[in-house]
Amino acid sequence: MNNLMLDLETMGTGPTAPIVAIGAVFFEPSTGELGSQFYNTVDLSSDMAKGAIPDGETIKWWLKQSDEARAAIVSEHAIPIVYALLNLSDFIENFADKNTLEVWGNGASFDNVILRSAYERAGLTPKLFWNWWNDRDVRTVVALGKQIGFDPKRDLPFEGERHHALADAIHQARYVSAIYQRLIGQEE
Asked: For the whole model, what pTM was predicted?
């Protein structure tokens, strides 16, 4: 599979936001097939020690989320950001060609930008696993879906815990695939 849906849980919204969880799933938009999955929780302090900057409004937002969602980001299994990034790179190396891999994030300026910034802060840019021209934007596809009468927030039930990075990545892969398939069907 050549498409990777990425989802981050963060403590901010800017490029230097600290990452607290990384979820990813390979998928094929033309069929909706899901492939290998990745999930790591990240120790917040470790990313802040590398220069990540939290945002008070995002922290207040997290405090209003479910117990399950908050527990997932403060897991006793959280690891330092450097190890999470290396784990993600190793995962990608096992399943994809970094020259052709398309990495999907929920917003052109969110997941992919924050993850790239984390690799830079950690001094791991050689382990970066995709080319910038292969950034893909979930929100653009959602806007196209709404134009053809498909709203994923209304039309596709969420499975799992919201704001869990892997569950969110899977859900996003499912609705990007559903929209993609509808768009292809429109062209026939």
From this structure: 0.95
